[in-house]
Amino acid sequence: MLGRLAASLLITISLVGCSTHSKKIDIVQDCLEQTAKIPHDHRADNYFQTPKQTAKLRKGNCSDKAAYLQYLLKQKGIPSKIDVGILSLSSFNGTYHMWVDCEGEVLDPSKPPKGFRMKMSKATEFFYMSMMNKTYQQQIEELHQRIENGE
Fold first, then answer.
1. pLDDT, tens digit, for every residue of 29-83?
2. Distance between CA atoms of 70 and 82, rounded to whole angstroms?
């Protein structure tokens, strides 16, 4: 099912960086499937695992899995970035959720906990830079740098 869903979501991805549209879809689908196999860890903390730690531990929360997916895509030459949004539940509002933006397509390697829904479809740079505390911002910037360095 994930394969069909990934293919349908990615049908509009541009051809930049790949010789064929089909090849790019296959690469992104493979990266999504690799990440989806990692069990979800529902811990809620301000610690971000590196992609290599996530691969070694074979578990991670949404931020860990988003970073791992971005790392895999980067290794394949497909540009992407981590995005942040807010999940809400009637009894609990305001928890963050992370996913990957790949050329305008939302790739979410984590299945949010049952009962959660996206309050926002995408968080903008302004939103998460102004709404999150400085420690959290710094950790995300450090995570992006670690991915760039291949950690």
1. 888 888 888 988 877 666 788 899 999 999 998 889 999 999 999 999 888 888 8
2. 7
Using CA atoms of 87, 93, 94, 96 in order, give the dihedral in degrees to the nearest 10: -30
Instruction: Please give the CATH topology (third level) of the domain spanning 2-148.
Output: C8orf32 fold (3.10.620)
Among residues of the chain, what percentage have pLDDT more than 70? 59
Domain boundary assignment for the chain: 2-148
The C-alpha atoms of residue 52 and residue 151 are separated, in whole angstroms, by 6
- Distance from CA of residue 113 to its chain's centroid? 15
Q: What is the 3-state secondary structure (H, E, C) of 121-150?
A: CCCCHHHHHHHCCHHHHHHHHHHHHHHHCC
Distances (CA, A) of 90 to 86, 87, 119, 139: 13, 10, 11, 29
Model pLDDT for residues 139-150, shown as the tens digit of each residue: 777 777 888 887
AA letter at 11:
I
Spatial distance between the Cα atoms of 143 and 52, rounded to a whole number of angstroms = 12
